Structure formats: C-alpha cells, structure tokens
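[Automated response] Your request has been received and processed.

Submitted sequence:
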Amino acid sequence: MVRTRTVLLLACCLMLSACGSNGAAQKQGAAMEGGNTQTQQNESTGQVSPAKESTDPSAEQDKPEDPSSTSSSKSPDSPDPSEEAVKDPEAEAPSEPKYHMNKVYRIVPNDESVPEKVVLLTFDDGPKDEKMINRMIDTLDKHEAKAIFFVNGYRAKEHPELLKLIHDRGQIIGNHSWDHIDLKKESKQKVEKQIGDVQKIVKEATGAEPKFFRPPFGSGGDTVKEVALEHDLLFMTWSNGSLDWESKNKNKPDAVVSNVLEQLHPGSNILMHELPWTAEALDTLLTKLEAKGYGFVDPQWIEPKIR
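Generated structure:
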C-alpha cells in the first residue's frame, strides 16, 4: 500500500515538473520573439518604442510641402521669374499715342487721362563718347526717364557701336542729318542724302530707323520738312534751350540747370547736347524738375505728326 502511494506521488511530481518546464519555455520564447520584433523596427525606423511617433527626419522629406506652412511658398498663380519674357523697349510703347507735338514743338496731352506737366528730354550732336553716354543713360535710368539722342551720320559712321549702345539701353535715336550743315540752304537732293543716309546707318546698327528728326541749328523750311515726312519722320526743333552749347556756359553745369528752369513750361521740348557739363548737370536738373511736379514723356508716346 505504501509502495503504491509512493509510486503515484512520484508520478505526480514528474508531471508537475514537466508542465512547469514547458510553461517557462513558452514564456522565454514569447519574450524572445517580442524582443526581435522591436529590434527590427528600431533598426529600420529609428523608433524608440511602437507607442511613439517617428522622429526620423528622412520621413519628413518625403511629405509634400504644405503651401500654407511657409511664407516663402508661391501661390499657384505666381509667375515663375525664369519664365518671364525678355522685354522689348519698343513693345512697351502704347498702342495709341498719349501725346502730340504742336506747331511750336511743345508736347501736348491727347486727352485729360495723361499729365500735362511733362518735358521731352533730347540730346544733339552725338554719338561721341561711350563713357559719357553711359553716364547720361545711368542718370536717365535713375529717374526712369527716356530721351531722344539726335545723332549725326559722320559721328555714327566712326562709332556705330555707340548707336547700338543707346538702342540696347532702351533710349531713342533721332536723325540730326549727316554733316550738321544748314539744310535750309541745300537742294532737295542734298537734303535727301543728308537725312536718308542717317536712316540707313542707324538701321544697320540697331535694326530700326529713327522716327524723329531735328535739323541742325533748328534751320529747316518746307523742303526739309517734306523730305522728313517722306521718311516718316516727325520734324521738330525745340521749345526750351539749355544753352549748353554757348561758350559762356562751358564747364558750368549749374548754368545749364538754371537756363532750363528759367524757360520751363508744361510740354517743354528741352534741347541739350552730348557734352561733359551737361552730363554732370543732368541728375540735378531731373531732380529739380521732379520736385516741381514734372514727369518725363517717353518719346514713343508721341504721335508721328504735328497738330
């Protein structure tokens, strides 16, 4: 009896020992499986634990940018600066002229929609010197102004590159005859050559013929006006002389400024020259004109005929 009980007791102990070993092995296996899973996740994502969000910066790089998240974002309608077309100065001219020239060569508004207090800036007897031209155009650009550079053919022949310089910097080239002679004393044939040859040389250098003509010394007459018209040129002299050509004003930029301001009127057609003291006076002159409420008419806004 005792022997039988002992055998049963040993059998129970063996069974309990087997069950305990099996349970411990299951727990150890489960723990190892969970540890491997988390290790693999940490290695691939950099997560600290499954409960925390990823802090991997590379994950942010794959997200599409929220346009509202940064002040530098462009709206869908914003133009790409790299796609903007290059502006052609002639393309900026209005489809309809805003001003016209009257019989005393003043600039007059075509209607009340444009200012009356404007001046036309002009420079005669060039092109002479690259440095001086660039200085003058730099000043014009500073004041957002356009001017007509009336050139002589013999000078243009010596320096055709200066014609291109004036044109490429957005300023206007005018015809001032070939030799700067008194055309009123010449035959129509001579006048034709004096005007026509300048038209040709300017077109060869810039691709466009002048649209404005000023006779040397302001001396014209019916024949000169007729030839100018045949070349589709607007004939003009001036209504405001800077007197920068007079010997008493040589090297006196203040005198140039004073002379213009003394004659100032709405629509002033200001005659100046490509001279060192005029180039020096230009910034002061334009500043004082602006202070008086004057603007600078773009020659391309002017009708090609007098009325």
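Summary generated for your ticket: Confidence is low (pLDDT under 50) at residues 18-87. The two ends are 146 Å apart (CA to CA).
If you did not submit this request, please reply to this message.
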